[in-house]
Each structure stands twice: as structure tokens, then as C-alpha cells.
Amino acid sequence: MYSSYDVIVVGAGHAGCEAASAAATMGSSVLLITMNMQTIAQMSCNPAMGGVAKGQIVREVDALGGLSGIISDKSMIQFRMLNRSKGPAMWSPRCQSDRNVFAWEWRKALENNRNIDFWQDTVNEVIVKDGRVVGVKTNLGIEFKAKSVVLTNGTFLNGRMFIGEKVFGGGRTAERSATGLTEQLVSLGFESGRMKTGTPPRVDGRSLDYSKMEEQLGDEKPGKFSYTNTPTLTTQRSCWITYTNQAVHDELKTGFEKSPMFTGRIKGLGPRYCPSVEDKINRFADKDRHQIFVEPEGWDTVEVYVNGFSTSLPEDVQYNALSKIPGFENVRMFRPGYAVEYDFFPPTQLKPTLETQLVKNLFFAGQINGTTGYEEAACQGLMAGINAHRNAVEESEFTIKRSEGYIGVLIDDLITKGTEEPYRMFTSRAEYRTLLRQDNADLRLTEKGYEIGLASQERYDAMVQKRKDVSDLTESIRVTKLKPEDINGWLESKGSSTLREKSSLYTLLKRPEVDLNDVNHLLQLIPDGPGGVGEEVIEQTVIEIKYEDYLNREKQNAEKLDKWENLSINSAFDYDRLKALSYEGREKLKRLRPATIGQASRISGVSPSDVSILLVYMGR
After folding, report:
1. Which tens digit of pLDDT belongs to each residue from 385-416?
2. Tens digit of each residue's pLDDT (9 = 90 or more) over 98-150
3. In order of start, what are the domains of the chain with their CATH numbers?
4. Which one has a higher pLDDT value, 611 or 378?
């Protein structure tokens, strides 16, 4: 073990693992410090990866050279592509994971990277000299030196856990909280706040009656997250759906007077889009039932995650309410649900690289920035790890624009708008979501990952080949002409107008009646066939053809706005010199220090006239 490193990563959750892996893969010597070596990459909440918008993030992390997609593929027990009935911009991959395999595969991957050292301890101080971080100090009094430090403390900073009237310190069940670091950061000038999240009870799957539930199968042809040659699922485990009812709600209400959320013992704001079950029945009193997803925790365990039943009510109330859910009449509970309240630091204190504005070479990633979700944490960790390495070796910063990826949308939202509740990614947050699909993340980002030394040569070559295959197939479709007698019968069966003369296959694919399920039939009409390319290339090609007009319009809009993204603002710019700026705009610009005109335009309180004044001053 060495006393000095290029990069120190504090915390080994989803953000910390990606940060350590990225920095080490790019060549930095990395020390990963965690409170418990046995809980590296632990899935603290639901055993799943991906979902709406989150699945796109996992694919982007993979395209750049991160590991979350590979680990997810190796540990999944079920795969579903969500929103298939909607347009491709909404398609979102999601997998049910084996919780233990997921954590074990992450640990193996990190241990196999010889640039990573490990240390089990708690960090309670960052060492700062002349406005620059130079290391950390642990609970054991050991000092480690570093050129860059990434803090990924999750829910552990002054964490307090709640079950009914019981309150105890901790950031996760059976694990203590981390103290001292928040107070030190505040003394350095950082602003902190409190947030809250929660988790449902875990139950014994052997005690459930699945005949009273709806079975939720995985996809018949399961996909995967990674663009690399990871295994594809051949067998899957089912999830199940059941519902609460009025009896469940009445039982839960008996514990409201002891609810830490309703009595005010919890001060932090919880996630609006993933509320506790008591919050749901309180806010939506007109609903007589709520959906419960019954999710297995892995291949070889009977433990079940009760998704949709997050709660911090007393454990006896939890149990009594659970037993009134159809299929749960004889339920045995492994452990109750709980809420956890923790410190976070408003992300408007960060640069686009996730480096703090106050202390150079200090980075924040994950829930410390006010986000929620494994996927949101993983992509922040990846970006922080990349930039921590590049700072350590004195290379330029690496960022992703809003028009280039969901990762760019997430980070831009955080640093320009901040968040007063746990931030969760949705497709609606991305104004260019037609461009930022899950199917083309490699074509968008792998070259960038390769150029900075994170994505491998093998990844890059595969992306180049895919791009060529898509181009070749597009040209074959464009030049293939179909005779009316060869296609009219099929068109009639689809309710589509028939041909009077030869027409290109390219034109036919654009018809709204022709959906993606028809593609394989149509491609057989190409004289030489589709050329033996894989389904991923076929899907990519058809999406690009079918939605060409929408994609071109979105690209044009992105290019118009990109001119503002390329107009840099000096970090030391004196906004007080521009007397014409509105008072609110000036104060927000001084506090948030946007890196570009584009970022300045998205800050709440900065008006279009303020942006115009900045543009005039810059000679634009």
C-alpha cells in the first residue's frame, strides 16, 4: 500500500466503483476507500438496473467504457425492454438483477485492475492546501495524499435511519453513518442540506402465494446493456404484480401517528417519483389500490423485494398491512422497511466536470449531489473519475453536451438548476431524446471514450464496423426498387395503400402502417438480403430511416443551440461590471459561475435579456 495516489475515491457504491474503475483504466493510481469491503457495489434498494431513461444512461456508461452495463449483463435474472408500444426514443432497457452476483462481479472487476488499491476505513476529512485538495484523513488517523479526490458518500453523511418512533444512526441497514466530513466541508464554505430516501421490507418468497398474483415474464428474446460480447440470458426468473386494497390502507393509517414523516422527525425532502406507501395513500386518498411489484433478489435466494411498499412505519404496522395484500396472507418478513435521512451538497456548487468550484481537484458524485438511483450515481461517478484522472495528469476537462447524451442532460440540470428533492432522470428532461436513444449510445459516445483512453480498441472497432454496416444496409434499402405485384398483397394486409409503379424499399419503410415488426419480412426483398448483419444493425438502420425527418429537425435545433454551448465564459468574469443585468440574474451568475452562455441561459432567474447582454458584451 502506498501513501500517495493520483486519485482517491471515497465510497464504493455505484458512483465510487465507476469512478475508481474509470480513473484506473485511464492510467491513474487509485485508492478506493470504503467503510466495508463486504458491501462494495451493494444494491441498497431494489435489485434492478435500468428503466425509463435510466436504461439509456446505463447504455451510455457502457458506450464510454464504463462497467455498469457489463456487470448488469453478467448478473441479470430477467430482461425487459420497456415502452416497446411507444416510439424508439422511449424504449428503455431494464433488468432484474441477482443482488449478490452484481456486487461480486463488481468486486472482481475492481480487484482485477492492478491500478486500484483498497482501504477499509471512514474518511472524516479532506486535506486542503491553498484552495486545492491534497489528500484525505481517515477515522484511524491515517493520511493519504492524492492529486484528485472523488467523494461518493451516498446516504452515509450524518445518516439517520427511521422505523416508526425508533431513530438510530446509519446510512444503510446494519451500517453506521459517517460523521465529521460534512462539518469540515461546511467550514470550507460549502452549503449543505438534508434529503430523505427509503426502502421497503424484504420478505420470504416461500411464504407467498403467487397464484393470487399476475406473472410478469421477461422478454421472449432478452436483450442486454453492453455493446461488448457479454452473455445473453437463456433462462429468466419471473416477477409478479399484486395490489394494495382498502384493508391494507386502513392498517397503514393506524401507524400514521408514529410515522417519522408525518410527525416531522424527518426534515429532508424525499423523492417525489418514488414515494413511500404511506405518502401514496395520504396524497392519493381517492385511489383504492396501488400496484406492488414482487421482485426476486437473485437466482439462489428466497428473499423478495416488495417494490412499491417503501415505508418507515413501525414494523408491526408494516407486517400487519403486508399480510392483507393478496398473496401475502402468510407472509414472513426478513426485515422491515426504513427511511434514511442524510446530508447532501447542492450541485450548483459544481463545475460541469463535477469538480467543486471552491476546492480544486475535489469532485462530488452520486447522492452527495442530491440525486437518486444507481444509474444516476454510476454516470456521475464515471464522469468524475474521468476528470479526476485528467486533472491529476494535467489534461483538459471532459464533458458531454445535452445534445450528446442523457449524462450531459443530468449533469447540466444539476449544476444549472440544482435540486430540492432527490433528482431522478426521465426522458422528458431531455429535449433531444429522439437523438439520445438507447440503440445508438455507442455511435454517439464510444469514439469519445476511445479518444480519452477509456473505451478499448475492441469497443471502438466494433462501433466503426456497426456504423459501416448501418451505412451499407441503408444504401441497399435505398436502391432496392419493388414492383407492385411483389408487394401490393402484403400492403393490403397492412391496410396501406398499394403501389401503381415501382417504389423504393426506403420509401415504404417510412409509411406509418409499416412498423418495426415488419422489417424482417421487407428486408428479404433486398436482392442480396440484409447482408448477414445482426438485429442491432437492422433495428438501428430502420429507426434512422423511419424517423429521418424528426431526427434531422432535432439535429438542426441542437446545432443552433450548440453555438451558445461553445461560447465560454471566464470563471473569473466580473458580472458586477454589467450594470444592465437584472439583479437576480447577476446574483445567480455570480453564484453559479456557468462555463458557457448555453449554461447561463438555462439558469433559473437568468432572463433572455440577461443572455442578450452577455452576448453583446462578448461581441456576439
Report:
1. 999 999 999 999 999 999 999 999 999 999 99
2. 999 999 999 999 999 999 999 999 999 999 999 999 999 999 999 999 999 99
3. 202-335 (2.40.30.260), 457-552 (1.10.10.1800), 567-617 (1.10.150.570)
4. 378
Given a cut of 70, whether residue 461 has pLDDT beyond it is yes
Exposure string (b/e) for 348-385, b if CB count within 10 Å is 16 or more? bbbbbbbbbbebebbbbbbbbbbbbbbbbbbbbbbbbb
390 grid coordinates: 485528467
pTM passes above 0.90: yes
The answer to whether the CB of 354 falls within 8 A of the CB of 370 is no
Dihedral angle, C-alpha 422, 427, 433, 434, nearest 10 °? 170
CA distances from 205 to 89, 106, 209, 297, 300 (A): 36, 26, 9, 10, 12
Instruction: List 166's β-bridge partners, or say none.
Output: 163
Render the burial of 546-580: b for 16+ CB within 10 Å, e for the rest: bbeeebeebeeebeebbebbebebeeebebeebee
Distance CA 82, CA 88 (A): 10
The number of beta carbons lying within 10 Å of the beta carbon of residue 165 is: 13
Residue 242 parent element (H or E): strand 239-243
Is it the case that residue 1 has pLDDT exceeding 80?
no
